[in-house]
Amino acid sequence: MKAIHYGSLQIMTGMRDVIACGGVESMSNVPYYLTDYRNGKRMGDGKVIDGMMYDGLFDPYNKSLMGQFADVTASTHKISKQDQDDYAIKSYEKAAKNVENFKKEIVPVKVNNVTFDRDEEVTKFKGADKLRSLKPAFSKEGGTVTAGNASKISDGAAFVLLVSGKFLKSNPTYLASLRNENVFEVLSFEDAEKEPQWFTIAPSLAIPKALKRAGLTVNDVDYFEINEAFSAVALANSKLLNLPEEKVNIWGGAVAIGHPLGCSGARIIVTLCNVLATNKKTVGCGGICNGGGGASALVIKRVDPSQFKSSL
């Protein structure tokens, strides 16, 4: 999502007219680090560091796992394990129900005669009873976050194409080609910060900031996409912003389809565009937390390209 922020700024300042923005992540290929092996080991034990844990799932400030912070968030906001399990089950069910809709935003990839054309995690759901039976994964006492109600380690990529109003006006042929396409305008974007351990609820600050910059309120938004790093994260932010369930992650989220860290922000916006277009709605808002206490949000609007106006 931050890439879309930066791309939008490039267009707003007139530096670029067309930018592809997105993210790619292959969590299954993150290496292990050998921090003191460059010149070889002469004597004594060595240390191997899990790069995915070290750079993605572990907070360097508090020396804690992100999942432990999610446990604290759930406890603080009175979100039970049952609440989280119920949410996760719904996420899987909604994602499974909308497999055909997701195809509109998926580009099939063929590797060694195998074609990947759908999110794999959705098909791995073993049922509600199995998910509810899973034990807390991060905190020995009082923990409620499990492997089932948390997002999944995944590989993925997502991109959007940003163009300026000036480019559209000066390229009538390209503009005409969009006549039957769904086109969206970036209305605003914002960031917000909390203490590192409260990264989980930082979207509840970033989203109102972005909406205010767009001159909108929560009530003006047709659909929200909030990253499901953990079910507790989506539940806590929805609770803090008083968002109706029927407007949030209506096709499921990262719990059901995966959370490739560097891809998820862009994936949220791609899905948000798809949701708005499919349901013929207008305004959408995406929000995502990131390690270190931060969060980003983006507000978009579905527009008629023939009527598109730009201040550039």
UniProtKB/TrEMBL annotation:
Q: Does this UniProt record's set of keywords contain Transferase?
A: yes
Task: Spell out the GO cellular component terms annotated for this protein, sorted alphabetically and separated by semicolons.
Answer: mitochondrion
Instruction: Name the domain of life.
Output: Eukaryota
Concerning InterPro entries, the annotation shows: Thiolase (IPR002155), Thiolase-like (IPR016039), Thiolase_C (IPR020617), Thiolase_CS (IPR020613), Thiolase_N (IPR020616)
Q: Its GO biological process terms?
A: fatty acid beta-oxidation
Q: Where is the Thiolase C-terminal domain?
A: 185-302
What keywords sit in the KW lines?
A: Acyltransferase, Metal-binding, Potassium, Transferase
Every copy of the Thiolase N-terminal domain together lies at 1-164
Per its UniProt record, what CDD domains does this chain match? thiolase (cd00751)
GO molecular function annotation: acetyl-CoA C-acetyltransferase activity; metal ion binding
Task: Identify its protein family.
Answer: Belongs to the thiolase-like superfamily. Thiolase family.
Q: What is this protein called?
A: Acetyl-CoA C-acetyltransferase
Q: Which organism is it from?
A: Naegleria lovaniensis
* Lineage of the species this protein comes from: Eukaryota, Discoba, Heterolobosea, Tetramitia, Eutetramitia
